[in-house]
Every structure is written in C-alpha cells, then in structure tokens.
Amino acid sequence: MKTRFRATINKKIPIDLTAADALPFQRVSAHHIHAIDGNEAVRAEISTTDFLKKKYSIRMNGAYYEVALMNDIELLIDELGLSANVASVSNELLAPMPGLIVEVLVKEGSKVHIGESLLVLEAMKMENSLTSPRDGIIKSVLVNISDAVDKGTVLIEFENDEENK
Amino acid sequence: MVANRGEIALRVMKSIRKMGIQSVAIYSEADKDAPHVLYADQSVCIGPAPSAQSYLKGDVIIRVAKELGADAIHPGYGFLSENASFAKKVQDSGLIFIGPNPYSIEVMGDKLASKATVKKYNIPMVPGTDHAIKDVAEAIEITKSIGFPILIKASAGGGGKGMRVVQKAEDIEEQMKRAINEATAAFGDGSVFIEKYVSSPRHIEMQILADNEGNTVYLFERECSIQRRNQKVVEEAPSTVLNDTLRKEMGTAAVNVAKACGYTGAGTVEFLVDDNHKFYFLEMNTRLQVEHPVTEFITGLDLVEEQIKIARGESLSFKQEDLNIKGHAFELRVLAEDVWNNFNPDIGNITRYETPKGKNVRVDDGIRQGSEVSVYYDSLLAKLIAYGSNRTEAIQNMLKAIDEYTIEGVETTLPFGHFVFTHPNFVSGNFNTAFIPTFFTKEISEELHKKEARTAARLALHQYLEDAKKLRLPII
Fold this sequence. Notes:
The complex is a heterodimer. Chain A is mainly β.
C-alpha cells in the first residue's frame, strides 16, 4: 500500500500526495535549496521546519507557502470528522475582503432576491456592491455604516428556509 | 514637516536629513511605532487612526507646524498633496508649501479645467466632453458621436477612484451613479465627464521640474502600463517604445503643459500612447509620484532634494541639454494584496521582514517586523526598485531582489513581480495596460498558484521524510 499524505497550503489549498511524490533537493546554503522537477530547475528557501507539527514554510518565486502535512491516520480521522459535520446552507453574507461599509441597503425583515444589492463595501479604492447569494428574508444586519470590517466578518444573516415556509 | 505616513514620509525625511535639515513627523494613533515616526527629529500625534481624523486634518497640521517652528511642509503624495485650499492655507500661515502654487493644483486637479488650460498649446487629447455631465440622457447622446466603450471619469479624480468603463447604453445609469458617489465620497465633488475609452493603450508619463525663474525641464519618461484596477503596480524608465524623436515631442508637450499653468516644483504629465505611437494628454499630477525613484536612478538626481531647493527659491542647477538617460530602472510596488485572489487587500501583522541589499537595489519602505497592516490606509507597504546598465540586467537584478525580499504575515505582490519579470511579453517589451487582464487572468493565476503550491508541498514532504529518517521514527 502506498503511504498517503495530504498537504494543506496556506490553510486553504489541499493537495493529496503519496510518499513517491516527494521532490528531492540539494541544500545550497542553510535555507536555500535546489531541486530538479522534470528538467526544470526549482529554487526555493525552506524558512521554517517543524517536524513534530509537520509544518514547513517554503518561499519560492516571491511567494510564501505554509505547508501543513497530514499522514494516513490523521487523514482518516479528519475524513471521519468531516463527514459528521455537514456544511450548512449559506445563511450568512460574509465580507469577501477587508473594507469600510459605506451603504446598507436592506434591514431586518427585508425580502431579497438572489443578485440584489445588500451592502456597499469600500475597498481597493472602489465601492463594491455585495449582492445576495440567495432568495430569502434578512434575519439581521450585523454592521453599520462606516464600520471597518475584516475579511470573513458576518455582515448579514438570512432566515432559515424552513422558517420561511 | 512631512505631512504624510508610510514609505513616502520616510523617503522624504531621508533627503531632508541628507541636506542637513531637521524633520518633523506627524502620525495617527495607529502609527505610533511606525518607521517614519522613529526616524524624524520630532514627532507629533495628530489624531485617531481614520485618515479623516488625522492625516487629512489640514488645520491641525498647519497649527502644529507653526507651534514647532517648522519652515515648510512637504505633503508627499495622496492625502493633502493635491489639495489647493490646503496649499493656500499653508502659504497664508507663513509656511512654505513644498509643491506647486495653489493655482496650478486647482487647475490641474480638475480634469476639465486642465484640458481647457492646455488647449492653446495644441496638446493632443482624447475625444470626449469638455464639461461636467449629470444627466444620463445627455451621456447617451454623447456616446452616439464618440461610440462605445466610454470611460466615465471624476473631474476631481485620481488614483482610479470614480472611474468606470461602460461597454453598453444600458449600463450607463448604474455606472454613472457609482462614479458620482465615489467621486463625491473621495473628493467632495461629484462632477463626472465622458471620454472615449482608448482600449489597451500604454500609459507613459513625463517627469518635469520647474524653478521660479521659468526654467522648466523634463526628466524623461516612466512607463506605467502594468496596472490593476487603473492603478500602477510595475513601472520602468526609460520606456521601450519611445525613440529620441517621440521622447523629445512628449517631453516638450509636458513642459508646455507645466508652463500653461505656471507650474513650479516637481510634477508629472501623464499620456496615453496607442498602438500607432500617437500620444494623448491625460492629466498632470501636481506632486511627487509614487514611482519617482526610477527617474532618480536613470538621471542620478534626488527629486525630493530638487523640490526642497526650488521651494526655497534656488534655480535649477542644470539645463535640458545637461540631462541624459543612464541605464534602466524598474519599480515594483509591494502592496499588501492577495495576487492569487483578484488583488484583494490583505491585512495582518508582519511576522518576518528582511529586505534585499546591493548597490543596484533600493527599498523604500514604511514597515518593519511587527508592523500592523490595517484597513485604514493604502495597501502600499514598500517599493522595490532595481537598476541595471541595460534593461536585461535591470530585470535580472529585480528578480534577484524579489527572491531576497522576505515578507511574512500578509500576502504581497512579490509573487506577481516574479510573474511579470519572467513573462516573455514583458521581457520583450511587448505589452500595454491590458497586460494583467490578458496574461494574469483568474484561470492562469489559479493554475500557476496550484502548480507552485504542489511543488512546495512535494519539497516539504521530502524534508519531512528526511527528518523522519533522522529521528528514526516510524512513518505511519
């Protein structure tokens, strides 16, 4: 049986590997490494290594990759855990990026349709209209005009579909 | 006194110190440990984090400058740098404003007024309206003569704010409303006008310097075509498309624009250049530009020093014929943005920070290890500038510097820099403002990111397996 691994990059991108996928490299200095992938030269830097937590950070081509590895057993536990926690339907509107709330177009109880503008978020020097991901009724608006919000902040909650029926 | 923050405040203070002058920093509560505050000879807190309550408080800034006995105020770029009434108040208070006179700022700050002012010098301009438009019906009428796509622009605008491209008549109403709102919020003036949208032009600008005796020179061009959301990311000098004839023509046009408004100090005249190497006047920026270091590398001048000398009444120590382009320089704006995710801004704490070194590399930065990147200010963390005796050498120096530049804790544009400086179209000089939408699409960037992430994972796995062998632990 092949030894399976899962690498999660920057806490976001999962990549499945087997032990055979390991890319051997040479150390050219304390942190700098050189590998050959196919015929391509790969130059990178291993900036931190943590064997016990299986965490390694790698800098390559100006980008920073934090790699968290999981082995077979951990993967199995994770998969069991995942199956017990089915993701709920989107009852929330999250801030897609950090910014400032400049306009709130709905209030508690508003009936909205998919694609309708709910909020205007100023970020990237522009006003960005945040639209409704679904049809439904607004349960609560959790932000006010001129609030500074972080990426991922819950801005608006929707009523559950069941409650609407 | 330097009425700014971040990298530009620090950069301006370095020239001030070099000239044997003392500097005063201003800062908001969020910036009390910022590098510009630590560098200055005196530092004053002027308010809470939001710019409107600190860096934009012109009256407070002037009062503090007077109290501390400052002679002059350097506004940097952004914030109050192109605010004519601030410049006037500074002068009225008896201080020197290091920048042009308020009249030049006012005329050039209003895109419609600037077009009217330079008209008599026969400067080529993009077809469009010469007055503000409020009415959707009128806007639609205009598009009948100039055709789609059009660009709705804020007359008071800059930095991509209040600017919208419209492809079809149905979208005019919504986009005009947005542009007017943005313009009102950002500049306190909701006037917008319409121009024909020149698709995929090059964005090339001319640096000028003018003293108080009417001597005006151009310090050659900067190519600024690599833009996302109408905002520059990579700049270079000189441009690969200008020959000596075109350079002289555009330089002369830029000098005429400056003369048309009685300009003094350092300024920049922006042009669009189309496929046929025809150029059109876009606007004049009445301040020091973010990308001024590339010009400093190729001319050997310190633009901030020149600004200060002009502000204290000295005349230029050189003439146009004394100026030559020497070598090639690039600038990469190091922004706290996630390039793999539509350049969305990122915030957080800088957990590790190491800058590249070397005589052909310059880093203008406003952060250090432990700095907090917040939502309150612009995403520009630093500028990485690389020089070489020719373009190829400068590209190689830039790539090496990107490799040596370590910023951990927030996403930055460094990986995008690697992409640009290894891209065949950029390397060959065959690119325009459509570079990002054409070559760095969501699909391409996602695929590249996944491929690199997989390589990183494979390297990490090798390291892990080696570590496991060394520790003689069984791999389960």
